């Protein structure tokens, strides 16, 4: 079985790599590749979250201070925001004029994902390990 730390790192890297491919295929309007990559990136994100929860049990997260509630709030909002590009993407298939909106919300989600990764890294760096 893979450790919480290794699982988190592997799936975070996988999620980020898939998101890069999602952006590239989206900008190139390669729908045949774009949609399966979106599905794969959401699956990788789910695994990243799973391992992040396991990883969190190894650290005294409240001891990290203010960054913990900030990270958790941003992570929750970012996760919920993943619905926006999915919904606008489906709409764009049927109403191509909404492509610009889809692009904007997709980049918003990418920015939220990056902010979540940065605050999560800071939180883990500031929290003492307990196990």
Number of strands: 0
Note the beta-strand portion. Answer: under 5%
Query: What level of helicity do the residues show?
Result: over 70%
Please tell me the total number of domains.
2
Could you describe the largest sheet, including whether it forms a barrel? none
Distinct helical segment count: 5
Structural class: mainly alpha
Tell me the distance between the termini: 17 Å
Features:
mainly alpha; 2 domains; 80% helix; elongated
Describe this structure in words.
With about 130 residues, this protein is mainly alpha-helical. The protein contains five helices and no strands. It has two domains: about 1-60; about 65-125. It has helices at about 5-25, 30-55, 65-80, 85-95, 100-125. The longest helix is centred in the C-terminal third of the chain and has 28 residues, at about 100-125. The two termini are about 15 Å apart.
SSE layout:
Elements: H1 4-27, H2 31-56, H3 67-81, H4 83-94, H5 99-126
Helix pairs in contact: 1-2, 3-5, 4-5
How would you summarize what this structure contains?
The protein has helices spanning 4-27, 31-56, 67-81, 83-94, 99-126.
């Amino acid at each position: 079985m893979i450790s919480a730390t290794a699982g988190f790192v592997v799936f975070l890297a996988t999620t980020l790599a898939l998101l890069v491919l999602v952006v590239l295929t989206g900008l190139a309007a390669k729908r045949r590749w774009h949609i399966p990559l979106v599905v794969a990136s959401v699956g990788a994100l789910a695994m990243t979250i799973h391992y992040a929860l396991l990883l969190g049990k190894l650290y005294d997260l409240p001891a990290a201070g203010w960054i913990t509630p900030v990270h958790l709030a941003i992570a929750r909002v970012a996760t919920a925001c993943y619905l926006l590009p999915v919904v606008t993407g489906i709409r764009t298939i049927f109403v191509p004029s909404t492509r610009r909106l889809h692009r904007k919300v997709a980049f918003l989600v990418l920015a939220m994902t990056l902010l979540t990764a940065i605050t999560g890294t800071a939180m883990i760096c500031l929290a003492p390990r307990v196990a």
